[in-house]
Amino acid sequence: MKKIVILALSFVLVASLLAGCKSNNQGGENVNTDNNKNGFDTSNEIVVVTREEGSGTRGAFVELTGVEEKDGSGKKVDRTTKEAITQMKTDTVLTTVAGNEYAIGYVSTGSLNDTVKALNVDGIAPTTENIKNGSYKIARPFNIATKGELSEVAKDFIDFIMSKEGQEVVSKSYIAVDDNAAPYSGSKPSGKIVIAGSSSVTPVMEKLREAYLAINPNAQIEVQQSDSSAGMQAAIDGTADIGMASRALKDSEKAELKDVAIALDGIAIITHPANTLTDISLENVKNVFIGELINWSDIK
To answer: What is the pTM assigned to this prediction?
Structure first.
C-alpha cells in the first residue's frame, strides 16, 4: 500500500514539474536565451520601412546617412534596399513600424508619437537642443520656395511665417529658425494662396495657415499635400504660389526658385517600443537601410 501511495505522489510531482516547464517555455520557445530578451528575438530579420522616391524626408535621410552615394560616373545613387517596405506618407510609416515588432523606419522628429520609439544615434538623442546645436546629425531644414513676383497676400503670409508670431507657431512642433524675429506688422490683404508639397511640412503649414487666418480673415489659403519634389515642380509650373520641401533644394530647383528655411527638423530613426535596442551608430543606420545588416543581432 505504501508503495502505491509513493508511486502516486511521485507521478503527481513529475507531472507538476512538466506542466510548469511547459507553461514557462510556451511549448519549447527560447524564452530565456540571449536572443530573446523581454520577448524581443534579435535573431529575427530587420523589416526596413522607407518613404517613396520624391519624398523630402527620404531625400534628406539618404543624403545625411550615406545611403545615397555617387557611382563611378559621379551620379548620385539611392542604395535603399529593394526589400524595404515603401510608404507614401509620414503617418503610414508610423503605423507600419508601430504594427511590426521587428520594423525600423524614419520620420520627422516633429511627427513622433508614443506608438513608436526613437533611437539615439551615436549616443545622441533627437531632441530640439541636440538638433539646434548640431550634435544630432540627421537633421534638415524645412523650406518654402516661390517663383517670380509674389501676390500681395502670398508675400504677407510669408512675412507672417517669418515673424515672431509665425516662428512661435513653428516652435511648438519644430525648431524656429529665428528666435529674435520681429512681430508681424503686415497689411492683411485679401486674396487666395495655393501651397503644395511635402507631407512633413504640411502639418506645421496647416497650423501657420490657421494662425494667419485668425489675424487676416480676408485671405484664403489652400494647402495641398504631396511630396517635396512635386511641391517644387508646382511652384515652378505656377500651379502653386508656394512650394514646400523638407530638404534642401536641388540645383535645378534653385535655378528657378527662391527658397527660404522656415524651420529646422530632425529625422528620427524609429522602432517598435518592444525593441530592446536604444542606440544605433550612423554607420549601422546606413548598413541597415542598404540591406547589409539583415538580422537585429547583426547590429552591435
So the answer is: 0.69
